[in-house]
């Protein structure tokens, strides 16, 4: 068969996979109970309370589309489309926004996303703020992200890495431990679907079809559900005492693209207060874990 025929077959297959599998394997939680299940798994697996997902973005390298100038050119100096994803405690994608041009950056994609709109309009149906032992005020259910995202009551991010005292170092460790699931989801995805280690020489619309259907959403989530132990075996590991951390196999692959780390500093007083409350919680008898000082280099 000719190259054009093969290309069309692949594109049509990707579209068909997405249509057939999206309802079962890519569903944003739609009720408070669904979000509570996500949060319970974050607390059980990663010792982080009231977390409903880890958010991050990844650049998918593409060949420069014709007549687009620098529109798809990103800060890492290659052409890309952006994948913004919310991931649960088991490395499954809960929500994706894909197809923005590379120069947009994580923060820009989030600002224009349906996820932000749902957070702003309270239509995501997150549970009501919860009382947590060791915290005097109720804590909002929230997403964890890196410094690219704004600090809000529904999004927590690390403190800037400048002259951090003990409480802030511990907070950053505890948040990053929960946030690693999204880094690992991207790493597993690219490690298993090697097309993401190349520069994809297709029109951006077709790249979106590949990301949505063939890999990122349906097949990735399908494999996590159906063959989890083998499929995710390239992820980061902690030993049973949580004192030794081993980088996942995917982190050693020089072909894997880095993640955007743009900074957004604006935040509300309420968000800052929640930031502080969680920081104090991770130091309290109720919220601390035995290994956190060791992992922060404080012991």
Shape: globular
Please estimate the helix content: 40-55%
Query: How many separate domains make up the residues?
Result: 1
Structural category: alpha/beta
> What are the secondary-structure elements, in order, as H or E?
HHEEEHHEEHHHHEEHH
Count of distinct strands = 7
**What is Rg?**
20 Å
For the largest sheet, list the strands in their spatial order. 3-2-1-4-5
**How much is the average pLDDT?**
87
Low-pLDDT stretches are 257-265
Helical stretch tally: 10
Quaternary organization: single chain
Strand content: 5-15%
N- and C-termini, Cα separation = 64 Å
> How would a crystallographer describe the biggest sheet?
5 strands, mixed
Keywords:
299 residues; alpha/beta; five-stranded mixed beta sheet; 10 helices; 7 strands; globular; hydrolase; hydrolase activity; HARBI1-like; nucleus; metal ion binding
């Amino acid at each position: 068969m000719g190259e054009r025929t093969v290309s069309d077959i692949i594109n049509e297959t990707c579209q068909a996979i997405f249509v057939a599998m999206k309802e079962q394997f890519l569903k944003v939680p739609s009720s408070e109970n669904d979000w509570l299940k996500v949060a319970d798994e974050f607390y059980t697996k990663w010792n982080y309370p009231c977390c409903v997902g880890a958010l991050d973005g990844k650049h998918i390298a593409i060949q420069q589309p014709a007549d687009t100038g620098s529109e798809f050119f990103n800060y890492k100096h290659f052409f890309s489309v952006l994948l913004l994803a919310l991931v649960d405690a088991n490395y499954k994608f809960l929500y994706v926004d894909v197809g923005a041009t590379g120069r947009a950056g994580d923060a820009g994609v989030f600002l224009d996303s349906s996820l932000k709109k749902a957070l702003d309009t309270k239509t995501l149906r997150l549970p009501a703020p919860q009382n947590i032992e060791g915290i005097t005020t109720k804590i909002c259910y929230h997403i964890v992200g890196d410094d690219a995202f704004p600090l809000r009551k529904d999004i927590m991010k690390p403190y800037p890495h400048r002259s951090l005292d003990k409480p802030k170092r511990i907070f950053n460790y505890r948040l990053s431990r929960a946030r690693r699931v999204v880094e690992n989801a991207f790493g597993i995805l690219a490690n298993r679907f090697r097309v993401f280690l190349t520069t994809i020489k297709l029109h951006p619309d077709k790249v979106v079809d590949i990301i949505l259907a063939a890999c990122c959403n349906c097949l990735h989530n399908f494999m996590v559900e159906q063959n989890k132990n083998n499929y995710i075996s390239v992820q980061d590991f902690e030993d049973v005492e949580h004192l030794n951390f081993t980088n996942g196999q995917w982190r050693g692959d020089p072909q894997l693209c880095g993640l955007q780390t743009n900074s957004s500093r604006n935040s509300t007083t309420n968000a800052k207060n929640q930031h502080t409350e969680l920081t104090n919680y991770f130091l309290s008898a109720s919220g601390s874990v035995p290994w956190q000082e060791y992992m922060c280099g404080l012991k």
